[in-house]
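Appendix B. One record, verbatim.
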Amino acid sequence: MKKQLLKIKGNQFELENESFQFISGAIHYFRMPKETWYHSLYNLKAMGANTVETYIPWNLHEKIEGCFDFENNLDIKAFVETAESLGLYVILRPSPYICAEWEFGGFPGWLLKDRHMNIRSSDSHFIDKVSSYMTRLFQEIVPLQSTKGGPVLMMQLENEYGSFGQDKKYLSILHDMMIELGCDVPIFTADGEWLATQRAGSLTEKNILPTGNFGSKPAEKFKAMTDFHGNGFPLFCMEFWDGWFNRYSEKIIRRDPVELAESVKEALELGSVNLYMFHGGTNFGFMNGCSSRGNIDLPQVTSYDYDAPLDEAGNPTQKFYELQRIIHELYPEIEQKEPLIKKSMSAQAEFVDRVSYFEVKDQISEIVVSPYPMTMEDLDHPYGYVLYEHNYTKDTEEEYFRVIDASDRVHFYLNQEHQTTQYREEIGEKIEVPIVKEANIISVLVENLGRVNYGPRLLSDSQRKGIRSGVMSDLHFISGDWKQYLLLDEKLHQADFNQAFTEKGPSLHKFNLKLDADYEDTYLDLSDFGKGFVTVNGKNIGRFWDRGPFLSLYLPKAFLKSGDNDIIIFETEDKYSEELRMSDKPVYMSEELLMDTIKK
């Protein structure tokens, strides 16, 4: 592609001296296998869009401080080049914070090791970390800009900063950093349309384009922006919310396709639009984010279906066809095509064996010993699970213990027998336990359910996971040789399933899925299991929880192979089965059961 210059001329965009309007959709390359990028990007182009937008997650590209990853599913260059091959332009959002209902809003958990750092601010401790990451990232994305012959037309400065802070020095530092690193395409901010967020989050004095995020009443929302900024900039809804994300124990949020299409049509008649999301994808691994309401954290589910124009697997929904219809009405000259549609399959996995977690914990963990319990961040294990164990000598016939300052969910065991499960509000309360033996083992299994990705609790101390203060018996903290088992999802296959299994306690369940050469996408039906996560051929495909509303996990074809496929389920609630079904569609909790769960 030749060099193309996107310019802002008054209240319109110009590309190569011709008026230009963005008809864009969000696709997150990191929420789907690389093998499926073409499918989703093709469907975006087939709908009639001219641009794809994506965030860039810091916590995946620098999962370990100083170790950068831009390979395979994280090959942002390959994603952009695939879009370019289909005739799509690209909007990149390389800001250190992305929100996106993604773990910690995209920030790597290791930032929390510095207890004096103020994230999303001009604090030099934070800026130094951002600079190191951005310097490496921009080596990948600078050559992709339209000014260098690539398809990238714009880049984002920060994301919805006006809903968080008003440190204009921070925004200015980010801007100057991007310019110094080679950004020479227009830079934009994206905020809510109302006065307070536009005032706090925009930086128009540096000629940075203000854009808005909203999902309805576009005329009203655009007017709010022009009332503050004036009419001297192109109107752009950077996130036109066409659906919404989902949390455990809540109804799935749906939006009427016809109503959505008419609202998008109204927005396109006024300015540019980026559909958020066009294809949502999946929060594989432990990357789901978390909402907050007051002091309550509400973890989000593994699926990021979002009720988007493409479903979780990337196939068109009714929204796709309604949006394609209104684009044709507005722009009959745009070429549109039939979308690509994947197949999916049903199947049955064969039960192989099961084993108690306590029997194999040494085989599937890294072990760290310290005088007191350490946080997950200080253990360099910021995601998933940590088991804390300590030898306890009997003091009395009945003792009470307390786990002080832990996040997010705690299972307490004495001699491998479950005593209680505490969840946020209960953590820190007394755990009264009869003591029979002289020598005992205390075990505390702590799960990070996902860090808050938006709002004031982004700065909460509860973002530090594991045990922050310690474990008490009677009135004192227990110290001396705490053994911490860092559960490694990539090591589950190393568990010796010949070891013992007891019906109670955390456990591993192994299945084999034998496939011929004609396998397809599928969904693991986990209706008969309680809570945990699943690995398939060593790949962590996400968490499950019988609280609903989703009772299945999407399993893309790219994670499977012909022949034997190893499936291992880590389960903590003593709810399991020797049957594991693959469904050709998602499995949801019935509305009646979901309402009962919500009431509880």
